[in-house]
Amino acid sequence: METFEISSSFSWTAYLLSNAVAATLIATSKKRPQFTRIIVLLIFLAAAAVNTYIAIDAPWAYQDYADTAVPLYKKFILGAFEPIITPMVLAIAFCQLLIAISMLGKGQLLKTGCLAGIVFCISIAPLGLYAAFPATLLLAIALFRLGQTVIIDPAKGTRPGIHSKTSNSTKSHI
């Protein structure tokens, strides 16, 4: 039986803060969607920057994630992932950057960014403690709720943005 060991570089403060922020974003996702978008943008932008730096400077550091990952992820991290760490993490960082940028958008771009963020967060949840589990699942819930605030305008086939409503009474009928 394997023993569970936490690296001395693990920060309980960062772990608790990540979970507190993610829980807060669930609460703000519908009541203050603009605030939630800004925080999500900053989270994914910071993650993209940090991952880019580490992927180039110290790619072997990602193997530490195997310490708290579920067995399938651990096997991948210590096996097939090892020779492709840098390009794989750079691709992940690029996707994180795209998710961050999507938080600046409206309509379908924002909705797609929320969906991509959900998929990303659920995908890294099996990394466990080092991915701040369950913060990733909490953030996925916040992104789901944020995506629900995007309103569909069926007449135009577009989504005009968050909480925007078109009214026929304001349109001219000439």
Keywords:
mainly alpha; globular; 5% strand
In brief, what are we looking at here?
With 174 residues, this protein is mainly alpha-helical. Helices cover 59% and strands 5% of the residues.
Provide the fold topology.
Blueprint: H1 12-31, H2 33-57, H3 71-78, H4 85-102, H5 107-124, H6 135-148, E1 150-153, E2 158-162
Antiparallel strand pairs: 1-2
Account of the 3D structure:
With 174 residues, this protein is mainly alpha-helical. The protein has one domain. It is built from 6 helices and 2 strands. The chain has helices spanning 12-31, 33-57, 71-78, 85-102, 107-124, 135-148; strands spanning 150-153, 158-162. The protein is globular and about 50 Å long. The N and C termini lie far apart (77 Å). The model is unreliable at 164-174 (pLDDT under 50).
End-to-end C-alpha gap: 77 Å
Average predicted local confidence, pLDDT: 88
Structural class: mainly alpha
Specify the number of helices.
6
Which band does the percent of strand residues land in?
5-15%
Number of strands: 2
